[in-house]
Amino acid sequence: MNPSAVSVPELVAAIVFALAVLHTFSTKLFAHLAHTQPRHAGLWHLLGEVEVVFGFWAFVLVVALFLLTGKTDAVDYMESRNFTEPLFVFVIMVIAASRPILEFCAATVRFLAGLLPLSRGLGIYFLCLSLVPLLGSFITEPAAMTLAALMLRDRYFAAGISRRLKYATLGVLFVNVSIGGTLTSFGAPPVLMVAATWEWTTAFMFATFGWKAMLAVLINALILSVLFRAELGRVGGAEGREERPPVPVSVAFIHLAFLVGVVVFAHHPAVFMGLFLFFLGYTEAYERYQDRLILREGLLVAFFLAGLVVLGGLQQWWLQRTLVGVEPTVLFFLATGLTAITDNAALTYLASLVQGVTPEFKYAIVAGAVTGGGLTVIANAPNPAGISILKSSFADGSVSPLGLLAAALPPTLVSMAAFLLL
Known about the structure:
The protein is mostly helical. The protein is built from 23 helices and no strands. It has one domain.
């Protein structure tokens, strides 16, 4: 038997994965059907939730594996999957979106905006798309995405900005978060997947990727802020929240300590889940300083990522064959494109399994993976978190995948230029 031959389960998994990708581009259709066919509105709403897509098709794949290989092999495959990242994203998303951390970050952004030679609304908007994504290198990209999305939602999306500005903001936010995590060796999921194997330190990341990413992030945020300065000036960056007693500094710092603890133990689910349970108890004890925790939104995002883990585990046969033996510049463009239909962390993980690769190969695959991380909702692990927070501000409560793709292309081109030419 040819060892390189594709097995039936692998072929079925590839087909199911392709259907899942196609489904992500069809969520707008299902959301529309929920309004036009109320008799089955519940089903259409379920299929129109982008966070449900990969979990749904992962279930389909598990059933198919059960029928093709039997119960034992199907269960063994599920138990071989590593669900640390979905669990981590869930925990970090809920903690980062807590009221004390949001108010602390918002106060910091307001202070820094006052130092900029810009109007208040424009300055805060610029920092939400530049400073906060760059913080992803230190507090992790999922936390940065959650913070930026919530501040943008409360200050700008809730104020009724135009549809064009909403999509443009989403595109730049996703791209900037994806590349903004490359200043360190632990902030971005696609970097985490290769850092230990390839012995990439934080100093190496900043010298090789980080400063280029910083420049691209600032250019993307500045261009969008200038293009929409008139509309942003009218909005003014005012938060639509009622006046409440301020959160004590001690409470804010305890929340930040929980956040830091989860980041430090990001690879140890037993530890960070324990911290999270302790965090839930603390928020219950000091409920007067809290808003509703985004548990539902976090669980949906975790469900999405867990589905991607299940589906992605059987895509290695075609992904790795696609990557081997490709010239570095071509590989950069290929990785950017493949990221749009896979997950950039899965892509770099598969690349780390290839033996005897050159430094040019390593740079091209990681640079391409982070560059394409804003093109689709599945391209980067934090993207579903951003969609979950902001989608209610869009028509039918859903984001058009083609609209996101079109909005993310210009900042993606800026990122490509930074990583290829600098």
